[in-house]
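Study the following:
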Amino acid sequence: MRLSQWIGAVACAAAATHAVADVVGTRAAFDAAFPTAAFEDFEEARVADGGFALIDNVLDSTTSNDVFFANEIEDGLRLTVGLSSTEPQNLFVSSPGFANYVSHAISFNGANTATPQITIDFTNSDVIAFGFDVTGNPDGTPVTVDIFSGADLLDTVDVNGTGVGTFVGFDAGSDIITSVTLSSGSVFFGVDNVAFAVPTPGSAAVLGLGALAAARRRR
């Protein structure tokens, strides 16, 4: 079979099959499977231990304010929180010693945030796996994590966060993860230590990447 025929077959299969991301349950397993994954721990945040800061809603590599400088957030990663009013500063940056947090993490202004409370976008459209820690949430209310490829919902899992963070990861194989949302009835949770992986050069995922994306756009 010619390469063009193989790519076409992959596209047809992608159009007919609803992909599901595999859950990766531990940070060690994720790191072993994706040793070159990009990693963002938000430790550049200029927030003193025990304190917090509220900044404008979007956090990415272009953010430049008193808390994060430009290019301090990993390229290809964007975090936003759900607005329920016109108040722009409701992205909440915590610090070690604030509530039960043990490091800098990203949360939201609970009094001013609609669901989904947190959205993570992978803006380069090449992510096949990601993992992160769900922090806070001391009331025990589960946080619902939805994984999307464009408009397609790949998977959903409920997570209970802790102060040190509860890890959850997903491997979508040759599929592309474009965004992740976090929603809960709790007004106290966040995300930290976000890792995201792209296909390695020469892998089958790279060969099929364009066809899969095109098939998804056609749908």
Summary: The longest helix spans residues 204-218. DSSP finds three helices and 13 strands in the chain. The radius of gyration is 18 Å.
